[in-house]
Amino acid sequence: MSLSEFLNMGGYAVFVWSSYGLTLGVLLINWWLPFQQHKQNLKKLKRQYRQDRKRNDSSS
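^ thats the sequence. predicted structure below, dont judge the formating
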């Protein structure tokens, strides 16, 4: 089997490679979105922590 035959996938290359591409895209989105949400949550928690410390320091 040559490389071009492998890449052609017996005439079904469009369907096979687009399926691989779609799968890769979904996997990347499933990694990226929670990663971004995690970063936002950390920023929010840090901001909240600073505000709480500021309030507690000023009330003492």
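The chain has a mean pLDDT of 93.
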